[in-house]
Specification:
About 40% of the residues lie in helices and about 20% in strands. By secondary structure, it is an alpha+beta fold. It is globular. It starts with a strand and ends in a 16-residue tail after the last strand.
Length: about 110
């Protein structure tokens, strides 16, 4: 999920939100890891990256009540910025899904 913040305060808010996330995803079957990345060239661009055992595990998370609740809380928290006349939420979001084609790493003894 690529997130583009409107300003530095919005970017810090996103960082805090992910740091304090409810971790509802952590116990989901097939969930492997979560990372929040900041673009080294553009500090207003963040990426939330989750890794899953397979596509079906990811799809089950996206269709879960916990996913909807987490995203509904986010939309509700920012409804005022849109209704208050600012016109744009403090963060724009663009989701992309990638599949691992090849991976190598430092697994000892392999």
């Amino acid at each position: 999920n690529k997130l583009t913040a409107r300003d530095e305060a919005s970017a810090r808010h996103v960082e805090a939100r992910f740091r304090d996330r409810l971790k509802a995803v952590d116990g989901k079957p097939g969930f492997l890891s979560f990372e929040l990345w900041r673009d080294a060239e553009d500090p207003l661009t963040l990426s939330s990256v989750t890794r899953w055992r397979d596509r079906s595990a990811f799809d089950a998370w996206v269709e879960s009540p916990e996913f909807r609740a987490a995203h509904d809380r986010h939309r509700a928290a920012h409804a005022g910025s849109i209704a208050g006349g600012e016109g744009n939420p403090p963060v724009a979001s663009h989701v992309t899904i990638h599949e691992v084609l090849d991976a190598s790493g430092g697994s000892a003894g392999a």
